[in-house]
Amino acid sequence: MSTRLVIVGAGGFGREVHTWVDSSPAYREQEDIGSIVFLNDYEPEVPVRAPIIATFDGYEPGQGDLVLCAIGDPAARRVVVERLAARGARFATFVHDRTIIGANVTVGPGSILCPGSIFSSDIRLGSHVHVNLNCVVGHDVTIGDFATISPACNLLGAATVENSAFLGTAVTILPGKQVGAGAVVGAGSLVLKNVATGSTVFGNPARPIGERR
């Protein structure tokens, strides 16, 4: 029996994930994907190119289903994933055919690695991590569960991004620096110092501009 890939979230990133899976023949063959469907709680503003079969809470996992959660916000993603896991959902790990993976790189279940990103060596990614287009992740980097890394980010050697942190587009983290759990780093920022848990920073160099709960 072929696999049905269930993409959770039919917004912009969900539609992108659908495109990336379609453009990854090696991945589709590896996972024996026969069809792709969506879960969404409302009719999307932009039509999707696959059926929406249920709401998040209305979905009952099928025997041949693999699930990818494509909700961009880390906190919302965690809530939905935990609900689906409680109902027995099995989570896929998606690595696009044009992603470069080096030696000793581990990727947790539910994570999504988009095309053009490069992972050098000795890297650990947690569960349900999103790494968008054209990112560079250096040696000995750690990315925690539910973190979101937006396009064109650079995480240099031994940097750490903790659970549920969010990096905006084109963020650079210098070697050995840490972004705390639940923190937000604004687009284009340069992280020269550790970012505190739950804080929001922005700029070059990145400076605190607020806090999140």
From TrEMBL:
The reply on keyword DNA-binding is: no
Print the keywords alphabetically.
Answer: Transferase
Q: Pfam families under this entry?
A: PglD_N
Active site (catalytic residues) = H139
Signal peptide per UniProt: none
Q: Where does substrate bind?
A: G72
Any keyword Protein biosynthesis?
no
Q: Where is the PglD N-terminal domain?
A: 4-84
Q: Where is this site: Increases basicity of active site His?
A: D140
What are the recorded GO MF terms, alphabetically? transferase activity
Q: Which NCBIfam families match?
A: NeuD_NnaD (TIGR03570)
- What is the protein name stated in its UniProt record? Transferase
Its source organism is Cryobacterium shii
Q: Recite the lineage of the species.
A: Bacteria, Bacillati, Actinomycetota, Actinomycetes, Micrococcales
